[in-house]
Amino acid sequence: MKNKKNRKLAADFACILVGGFLFAFATNSIYTQFKLLSTGFNGVALLLHYSLGTSISFFSFLLNIIFVMIGIKWISPMFAIKSAVGISSISVFLYLTQEIVLPIDNIIVAIIFGSVILGGGVGLALRHDGALGGMNILGKIISKYAGVSIGTVDMVFNAILIVCAGFIFGLNIALYTILARYIANLVIDNVIEGFNRKKTVIIVSDQYREIAARIMVNPKRGITYINGEGGYTGTDKHMIYCVIKLTQLARVKRIVMEEDPRAFMTILDAKEVVGKGFEILLTNSVSKSIR
Fold first, then answer.
1. What DSSP letter does each residue of the chain carry, written as one string?
2. Which one of 22, 158, 208, 282 has the minimum C-beta count within 10 Å?
């Protein structure tokens, strides 16, 4: 058990380092050619570099690590260590890759490929419980004392950053940066979720017990029964509530159609699933409790 935990920890740090490299590579080889900004304190470091010629790696490390140290009591020790490793790796790789410039002369191509690489790096670090910046920590501090959500802090900070870029370098650069951030955020979300996306399935059927029994056997998902009443018929109805992985959706749909072709089924995106049982059901015995 201990060896397994150590291997996971080693894999986490390795992926955070790879994420730091991808972030730095995209920044130096693509973003800097067109004065594009990343977000948070790394974006501030880029803005200072474009305006004053300062070192990206030095100010990226300085600004981010300060807030990791300030906010250490709001985060777990392991997250602080992983964040420090991620921030340090960015600074080291920014220094090592500063001479690398990819021969791209089209800004749209640069935005797409640069954002995919950068977003992939950030997503990889986040997926392994690390961070490549201290912006979220600043958000936690402000949220605690001012009652403002972390997302709002992040949005306002980056909006100010983009406005500053617009005043200094022109409206086009500000708009290009917004596009780059949008693409990078899409990539981050996809890297974090991967093929592990969740779907919420609600099934209304008279054969609910047969359907539920098959779902609990294969693909081994827990279910909850919800009692309802048909609005038109006034008869009692039984619904199945189930959260499954995207890769299991086709099988669940097939089970429903085989057991009851007249069943009514709603499929929704489940952005986040929290609670005991969801991952355990993949390997342990079937449970009838919802996650």
1. -HHHHHHHHHHHHHHHHHHHHHHHHHHHHTGGGGT---SHHHHHHHHHHHHH---HHHHHHHHHHHHHHHTGGGS-HHHHHHHHHHHHHHHHHHHHTTT-------HHHHHHHHHHHHHHHHHHHHHTT--S-SHHHHHHHHHHHH---HHHHHHHHHHHHHHHHHHHH-HHHHHHHHHHHHHHHHHHHHHHHTT--EEEEEEE-TTHHHHHHHHHHTT---EEEEEEE-TTT--EEEEEEEEEEGGGHHHHHHHHHHH-TT-EEEEEEES---STTTTGGGTS----S--
2. 282
Q: Distance between CA 16 and CA 122 in Å, rounded? A: 8
| Tokens linked to 206 | 């008279």
Give the number of residues written for the chain: 291
| Residue corresponding to tokens 């669940």 | 252
Quote the longest CA-to-CA distance of the chain: 73
Q: What is the value of pTM for the model shown?
A: 0.70
Domain ranges for the chain, please list them: 2-193, 198-282
Among 211, 210, 70, 83, CA closest to 141: 70
Residue with the two structure tokens 């709603």: 266
pLDDT category at 70 given cuts 50, 70, 90 is confident
Determine the topology of domain 198-282 in CATH: Alpha-Beta Plaits (3.30.70)
- 138-182 pLDDT, tens per residue? 766 776 677 666 667 777 888 888 888 888 888 888 888 889 888
